[in-house]
Every structure is written in C-alpha cells, then in structure tokens.
C-alpha cells in the first residue's frame, strides 16, 4: 500500500511509540491526525490534526476515524513490571473496550488498513528459543503476562476476523514488537520498563545502582528508529492480513545492558546491586525475525551501544533543560 497521499490516524500520539511515529510521518510530509485524551501533546505542525477522544467510547472512535484512510493503533493502557505483578488485570477492560470499539468504527468508516501494535508478551513461553509468528496459540501465555497477553490475543483475533470473515473485508496488520527503547521513552519509575528504568538511574548517577531481579533476564531490545522502519514497512505491505515480529533478532541480558550503560557513562566499576526480591517477569523472551526480513525486507541497524548512548544523551539533555535557568548557568 502506498501511504503517500493517505490521511493517517495515529492513536496515542502523546505516548512513546505514537509520538515517535507522528514525528516520523510528519517529517516525511504525511497528513496525520492523532487522538488526545488524558495527556497533552507537544507536537505542533501544519499537517497534524488533533482530536479529543476517549477511545473506549464508540462514538468518539467514529469521530476520530472519519475521513481517514489508514489507522495505526498505538494507544494502550500500559504499566511496568511492578504493576503487572501486583495488579494483573489493570490492563484488560480499558484496552478491550478501546480495541473493539476502534476496530468496529474503522470498518464502518471504510478504513483501508488497520495496523495494531500487539506484543511479544502474548506468545507462549518457548524458553531460550526465539518464538515465531505462527506459534501465538501453540500454548498459553506465560502466567505473569496472562491477562494482558489474553487481551492482545483477543484483539489479534478480531483483526483477523475483520480481514478474513467480514464482507467486504478490511485489511489488517498485526505488529508484534520486542522491547522498544529510545528517546521519548517512559522514564517515570512507576511505569517504565527495565531498559528505561536503568537508563534513568545511570543518567542520574544512582550509587549504588539498584537493579530489580537477578540481572539474568534476557530480552530483545530494538531502538525506536529501527522499530519505526519495520512498522512502516508492515503498514505498506500488500498483504490483506499480516502478523509480523519487529525485533532486533539479538538477545541481551539485563546485566549486559547495565554494563554497557556504565561503560558509556565512563563508570565501568560503579557499584551495582541486584535485588532478586523485586518483581521481574519472564526470564527469556526472544522473537524470530525471518518473516520481517523475507516479507518486508527489514533488519534492525542500530547497535545496542549506539542506541543506549543516544538515549542516555537525550535524557540528560531533557533533565538539563528542565532545570531552572540559574542552575543551568551555574553548571
């Protein structure tokens, strides 16, 4: 699909992924609309239209998608590991209402393509082996992810139904990201994921640097700009329905992330304390990347060191800019 002359709705433009996608699309000259609900958005651009909407309400969804051609659904209620462990059902109801209402509104508005950001957390546990797209329903999701994973799986099934059972069909694409990080990420300790939390602690020079868990958990990290490359390639596919992993294809342990960050910061011998009593999630999560390579021609290009260095520098710039002017002059 050629997106050049399409009007694209990006939901969740105030969030990490949605905001980064907005900037990429606007920089490429696209006409873009985004929804605003509880959080404000700082992007101002003549090609950007803002629309207030509570996407759990079908009427608001209908207003949001009217006159658009493509919808890329980035909005979601999310949290960090601590909330997932302590309040496992917190993500279910609002996201189910949002996703079902938006799909329904898109279909009746004649949207040409609906792109859903799912999650690698919805997959069954495959241990240290990377999991492929066709294995989504090969077993139950990991117990710690069960509620949010079930919500993602249900929405994926809805996407497939609209694409293959509706008459006429609506083209849908399911993108399953690995762990996306980079400038603009959520660094609030209450909601951040492990990579953002570690970057913040290094940026603020915590001593000792406390790390939740043993440090042995392994994840596939993908830099935000690489993820956007893959997402937009998936949005442009000619397939009437596609589910695809967008990942780097490389596993990295939390210990490696910490060591790389401290080396970038010039403090390789800084004191690090691992706390196995604090919440963590699945020990290993790796995604296959062959479909993205073969179908989309996608491969991540940013190394872990390059991505972490860029994000750390960005966060420090943000912290410096937020200081009162007299403190900036003094420093």
Structure write-up:
The protein has eleven helices and 13 strands. Strands 3-2-1-4-5-6-10 form a seven-stranded parallel β-sheet, sandwiched between helices. 39% of the residues lie in helices and 18% in strands. The protein has a domain at 7-183 and 220-249 and 287-301: NAD(P)-binding Rossmann-like Domain (Rossmann fold, 3-Layer(aba) Sandwich), CATH 3.40.50.
Gyration radius over CA: 20 Å
CATH architecture descriptor text of the domain at 7-183 and 220-249 and 287-301: 3-Layer(aba) Sandwich
Output the number of helix runs.
11
Distance between the termini: 51 Å
Largest sheet: 7 strands, parallel
CATH superfamily grouping of the domain at 7-183 and 220-249 and 287-301: NAD(P)-binding Rossmann-like Domain
Helix content: 25-40%
Global geometry:
globular
Give the SSE string: EHEEHEHHEHEEHEEHEEHEEHHH
- Runs in which pLDDT lies below 50 for 5 or more consecutive residues are 326-331
Highest-level CATH class of the domain at 7-183 and 220-249 and 287-301: Alpha Beta
User: Overall mean pLDDT score?
Assistant: 92
According to DSSP, the number of beta strands is 13
CATH topology of the domain at 7-183 and 220-249 and 287-301: Rossmann fold
């Amino acid at each position: 699909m050629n997106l050049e002359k399409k009007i694209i709705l990006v939901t969740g433009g105030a969030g990490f992924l949605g905001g980064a996608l907005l900037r990429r699309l606007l920089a490429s000259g696209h006409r873009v609309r985004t929804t605003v609900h509880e959080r404000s958005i700082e992007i101002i651009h003549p090609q950007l239209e803002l629309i207030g909407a509570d996407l759990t309400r079908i009427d608001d969804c209908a207003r949001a998608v009217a006159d658009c051609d493509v919808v890329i659904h980035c909005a979601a209620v999310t949290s960090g590991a601590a909330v997932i462990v302590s309040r496992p059902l917190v993500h279910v109801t609002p996201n189910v209402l949002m996703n079902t209402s938006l799909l329904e509104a898109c279909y009746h508005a004649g949207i040409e393509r609906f792109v859903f950001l799912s999650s690698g957390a919805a997959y069954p546990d495959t241990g240290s082996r990377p999991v492929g797209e066709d294995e989504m329903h090969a077993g139950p999701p990991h117990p710690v992810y069960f509620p949010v994973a079930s919500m993602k799986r249900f929405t994926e099934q809805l996407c497939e139904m609209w694409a293959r059972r509706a008459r006429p069909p609506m083209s849908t694409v399911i993108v399953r990201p690995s762990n996306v990080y980079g400038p603009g990420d959520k660094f609030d300790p209450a909601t951040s994921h492990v990579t953002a939390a570690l970057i913040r602690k290094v940026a603020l020079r915590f001593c000792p640097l406390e790390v939740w868990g043993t440090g042995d958990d392994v994840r596939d990290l993908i830099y935000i700009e690489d993820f956007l490359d893959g997402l937009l390639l998936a949005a442009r596919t000619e397939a009437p329905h596609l589910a695809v992993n967008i990942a780097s294809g490389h596993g990295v342990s939390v210990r490696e992330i910490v060591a790389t960050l401290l080396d970038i910061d010039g403090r390789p011998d800084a004191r690090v304390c691992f706390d196995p009593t604090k919440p963590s999630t699945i020990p290993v999560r790796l995604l296959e990347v062959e479909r993205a390579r073969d179908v989309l021609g996608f491969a991540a290009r940013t190394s872990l060191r390059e991505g972490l260095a860029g994000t750390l520098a960005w966060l420090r710039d943000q912290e410096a800019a937020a200081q009162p002017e007299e403190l900036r002059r003094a420093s």
